[in-house]
Specification:
With 284 residues, the protein is α/β, with parallel strands linked by helices. It is built from eleven helices and twelve strands. The protein has a six-stranded parallel sheet, with helices on both faces. Strand 4, helix 3 and strand 5 form a beta-alpha-beta unit.
Length: 284
């Protein structure tokens, strides 16, 4: 029986992974959680800051689905995890196909390094590549998880969804939490050659959203506003150090969440990094 430890078991993806693996009688699961109030016989507490629990060092496989909203913290946590786990332990790390995202236009691509999320994933992959016995999974757009699930729901509730010009032909790679969980199970047993991107199908954006969209006259990468577009170009450029990008995006996201907490949009305009992910040069 393989001893499998799962980090981030309370998250959307983590719960799907646990549900899938519990059906396999050849696996013994131990769940890592950060809420002491939820500790049970089959769970252990870890704050992701202190030294790793001994159970991780003695495991056969560690599945890392853990992630917080703090970009810099995620990088530090993963780096320490990779350094601390013996190479005898197989580590399955969850990344994202966002690392392949590219804006439209040659000049934009030259300056592009990525927003804080992309930088976080690239750094984690860089550290992961230096450790043997580590597998990296890059799910594409997971339509039933977290931010994407919320975004698609907002699109369906809005009276009108506005996409950038010339976005009619954009097609994106999509998957589901269940498919990711199945892939993780196969990876545990070494039954699958891992693809560079984890997806089930390639679909037109309007088909994934579930409705027709209106296309604006503007095809800028991020915003119809030239000023906002230039600002995000700067924030996503290699000119800005990673630490500063992490800090600035955390501030921007907090303010955006506060501003939009009670807003109900009749018209939803796809912009920011969502526009890049759905209509960027990598989707053509």
């Amino acid at each position: 029986m393989l001893n499998v430890v799962i980090l981030g078991s309370n998250g959307a993806l983590g719960r799907s992974v646990v549900e899938r693996l519990r059906k396999n009688s050849s696996l013994s699961l131990t769940l890592v959680i950060r809420d002491k109030a939820l500790i049970t016989e089959k769970t252990i507490f870890w704050d992701y800051r202190s030294c790793i629990p001994e159970q991780l060092k003695k495991a056969d496989v560690v599945v890392n689905c853990a992630r917080s909203d703090d970009f810099a913290f995620n990088v530090v946590f993963n780096r320490n995890l990779l350094r601390s786990i013996p190479c005898t332990v197989k580590l399955i790390n969850i990344s994202s196909n966002a690392v392949f995202a590219q804006p439209n236009g040659l000049l934009s691509r030259i300056f592009f390094k990525g927003d804080a999320y992309i930088r976080e994933k690239k750094l984690i992959e860089k550290y992961s590549s230096n450790r043997s016995n580590t597998s990296i999974l890059r799910p594409t757009v997971v339509i039933d998880e977290g931010g994407w699930k919320s975004f698609f729901s907002s699109c369906r509730l809005a009276n009108q969804v506005i996409a950038p010009a010339r976005g009619e032909g954009s097609r994106i790679k999509i998957t589901t939490r269940e498919h990711v969980a199945i892939t993780i199970e196969n990876c545990i047993f070494g039954n699958q050659n891992l693809p560079s991107e984890l997806f089930e199908s390639i679909e037109a954006v309007n088909a994934v959203i579930g409705r027709e969209m209106v296309y604006s006259k503007n095809s800028l990468n991020y915003f119809d506003s030239a000023i906002k577009n230039v600002l995000l170009i700067f924030l996503s450029s290699w000119i800005l150090p990673d630490r500063l990008a992490f800090m600035l995006q955390n501030v921007i996201l907090r303010r955006s969440a506060q501003a939009n907490s009670n807003v109900k949009l009749s018209t939803l305009r796809i912009d920011g990094m969502t526009r890049l992910y759905l209509f960027g040069g990598h989707t053509k």
